[in-house]
# Entry
Amino acid sequence: AQSVSQHNHHVILSEAASLELGCNYSYGGTVNLFWYVQYPGQHLQLLLKYFSGDPLVKGIKGFEAEFIKSKFSFNLRKPSVQWSDTAEYFCAVKVSTDKLIFGTGTRLQVFP
Amino acid sequence: DTAVSQTPKYLVTQMGNDKSIKCEQNLGHDTMYWYKQDSKKFLKIMFSYNNKELIINETVPNRFSPKSPDKAHLNLHINSLELGDSAVYFCASSSGQSRYEQYFGPGTRLTVT
# Structure
């Protein structure tokens, strides 16, 4: 069965630190990959997405992610986090149907 | 100009009651979804409708019944509410031409006491 793993459950950083959140998926076919962010008390918002082409994808708010097919990974990065990045981050994979399979989420806390 | 809206935002009710959550999207999308987010923030799809037709129905108790009166609306009716139904329920929509992106509503926090 398809699944998405986010190994970092809770990440605590100081402002200006660099961020990398891991995401691995299990599916052998063509995938569409997403990172969503959920700020406290709010709904999910799309940060970035990968469909095809350049495996390095740039999203909003300075985030980027790299698709490495051989590693079945789609890690999220940001060179310098801000307090306002405190949120829950979800990796998701869309396989052959309209279904999005979400990872369990990573809670990021950024302290000033 | 809200894209995907849900009502109510909060719902507190007692076990055994029947309740409905409404979802509307004004994006012109033809596919709508219901997701459940549990207390550990895990998100799981429940249902998906395309042009008012059910296309995804995960292993959800039949106490949950989605209803799509038209392409812009997907309501969720829950019978005989149980404590374990407490969660945040998110509606989402996507376009047939760009089914890859799903746009989420603000969520409905359901608390069953």
